[in-house]
Amino acid sequence: MSNTNSKTILLPNGVSIMNAFGERENMGTTATGEDVWRGTATTIPIPSSSGEQMTLVSDDTQDTTLGTGARRIKLHYIQAVTGAEMVETVDLDGTTPVDTVATDIMFINDIYTVLTGSNGVAEGDIIVYKKGAASTIYSMISAGGNKAMIPNRMVPAGHTLVMKGWHCEEAQGKRCAIRIRSTDMRGVLLPVFCFKDVAYLKQTASGMLELNDNIPALSIIKVSAWPDQAAAETSCSWWGELWPNSLI
């Protein structure tokens, strides 16, 4: 998803597309909403701003360097102190936990498989959690997939995300308010998530919705949903242009 009309977008040097998408099944009627992702927690936890070390593990022994499933994972993260986006590659060891080399991970922006065995996808659920706290899960790749289905992102330091559009859907005939939000308002970072747009859906898709907002560096974007009835099923996506502040 790079644009709304399937046309080529010409961007200045240094400007890139930032986008994300996710899905959630069997949602409840949690009063505070449920974050869109494949995990069980209704709210995805946020790592410490001082940074943490993470651990990766699968619930299937075949997700390993010699197995038939996922073998190698690439992790994009925001580094504490600098706020820069960094990348680390991790070789899985099945059901044996593997720690990241990085100990200063402030936020996980994405994880995906870069090498698999004969199955071509993860054999089990692969989770990324806070080292020493396996119940604090920050991201995951579901069995049968190769990428985290999580729309959460943090804007890297020195950049502004110019939001352009988003899309959402409810698939089970349960009326649902789906809201995109971020930890800022009017360009100022906040310690809370503020709503940026909302769509009420019931077994239908929104189509691409225009969204014009400037999201400052270190703000977190996510999508959450509020179903009227249990067992709602939602998906979403969003996109924008990531501009270095020097070009704005």
Structure description:
The chain is mainly β and 248 residues long. It has no helices and 17 strands. It has two domains: 16-44 and 152-247, Jelly Rolls; 54-141, no CATH class. Strand 4 and strand 5 (85-91) form a beta hairpin. The chain is globular, with a radius of gyration of 18 Å.
Task: Give a quick set of tags describing it.
mainly beta; five-stranded antiparallel beta sheet; Jelly Rolls; 2 domains; single chain; 248 residues; disordered N terminus
Mean pLDDT: 95
**Distance between termini?**
24 Å
Percent of residues in β-strands: over 45%
Which range best describes the helical content: under 10%, 10-25%, 25-40%, 40-55%, 55-70% or over 70%?
under 10%
Indicate the CATH class of the largest domain. Mainly Beta
The biggest sheet amounts to: 5 strands, antiparallel
Number of domains: 2
Q: Please count the beta strands (DSSP E, at least 2 residues each).
A: 17
Note the run of SSEs as H and E: EEEEEEEEEEEEEEEEE
> Low-confidence runs (pLDDT<50, min 5 residues)?
1-5
The secondary-structure class comes to mainly beta
Supply the number of helical segments: 0
Shape: globular
Radius of gyration: 18 Å
CATH architecture of the largest domain: Sandwich
CATH topology of the largest domain: Jelly Rolls
What's this, in brief?
With 248 residues, the chain is an all-beta fold. It has no helices and 17 strands.
Write the layout of secondary structure elements.
Elements: E1 16-27, E2 34-35, E3 54-58, E4 70-79, E5 85-91, E6 98-99, E7 105-116, E8 126-130, E9 133-141, E10 153-154, E11 159-170, E12 176-185, E13 188-201, E14 204-205, E15 209-215, E16 220-227, E17 232-244
Antiparallel strand pairs: 1-17, 2-16, 3-6, 3-8, 4-5, 4-7, 8-9, 10-16, 11-14, 11-15, 11-17, 12-13, 12-16
